[in-house]
Amino acid sequence: MTATAPTLVTGATGFVGSAVARTLLARGHNLRLMVRAGSDRRNIADIPAELVEGDLSSPETFAQAVQGCRYVFHVAADYRLWVPDPAPMMKANVEGTRLLMLAAQAAGVERIVYCSSVAALGLIGDGSVADETTPVREHAVIGIYKRSKYRAEQEVLRLVREAGLPAVIVNPSTPVGPRDIKPTPTGQMILDCAAGRMPAYVDTGVNIVHVDDVAEGHALALERGVIGEKYILGGQNFLLRDLFAMVSEIAHVPPPKISLPQEVIWPVAVVSEWLSRAFGITPRVTREMLAMSRKKMFFSSDKAIRELGYSPRPAREAVADAIAWFQSNGMLK
């Protein structure tokens, strides 16, 4: 397509956001990227786009960001699995999303793609596969990040119902791949395993998808998605043991062989959280992480495959691309 009116992407400097921007650029979109002041912009350095400074915690920046846009892709979020104070994350992810949606609608934006997460969906957890229709209640959503994404998604759905917000929702599972500069919690896990720093694991499961497939799913949601509908953008379900075995094989390191029960790691998580609060460092394990790991996070992307034409590649390619990128960027020695 050729578009003269800009397409706004929030969170474009991040892992998923930069992939979405590249996919839209390849489709001919005229890009406007909302970036935080002082943010690391390596992921978008080679993308021709108009940059506008904005922040989910600063709603006064939204009107300028959305002005004149035909489409909005809201990908930005505060994505951390542990924070000492949950209030700023809730404000950014929930209230920031609500106000950005209202600003986009007031500016006459034709269609919005909101990047939610499988964290906002129901979870069966026993190894069965969940989908967009799996029941969910907030009290069952574990962790501040997941609760913030649940509340934000509910707010978008409410605006669709009550205010006619032209939004489609996508729910990525666990993206991995190139340009994971922070890295994300999952990227750090793969990086640690590939470096031989993963001596043990817990018995849980995740759904792994290539970040570029997630980006493609965003574009397909714009082109083919139904307003008010949700689409899981996932890949393959893996037990953590099997994922680490694959990572180790690709990286040519011995796989972790020890499966640790929750009760062994729980005291470590308590101490880790205390040290994090005392010294301002990010904990590698927390009690909420352990609570989340009690359920296998398996999901189906059948709806997106059927209705959007979504076609994720094998997860092995995602892991291989992530490891290759970490190596080429000096993060994996």
TrEMBL record:
Pfam families: Epimerase. One of its GO terms (cellular component) is cytoplasm. Gene3D superfamilies: NAD(P)-binding Rossmann-like Domain. CDD domains: AR_FR_like_1_SDR_e. Residues 8-234 form the NAD-dependent epimerase/dehydratase domain. GO terms for molecular function: aldehyde dehydrogenase (NAD+) activity. NCBIfam families: HpnA. PANTHER family: NAD(P)-BINDING DOMAIN-CONTAINING PROTEIN-RELATED (PTHR48079:SF6), PROTEIN YEEZ (PTHR48079). This is NAD-dependent dehydratase. It comes from Acetobacter peroxydans.
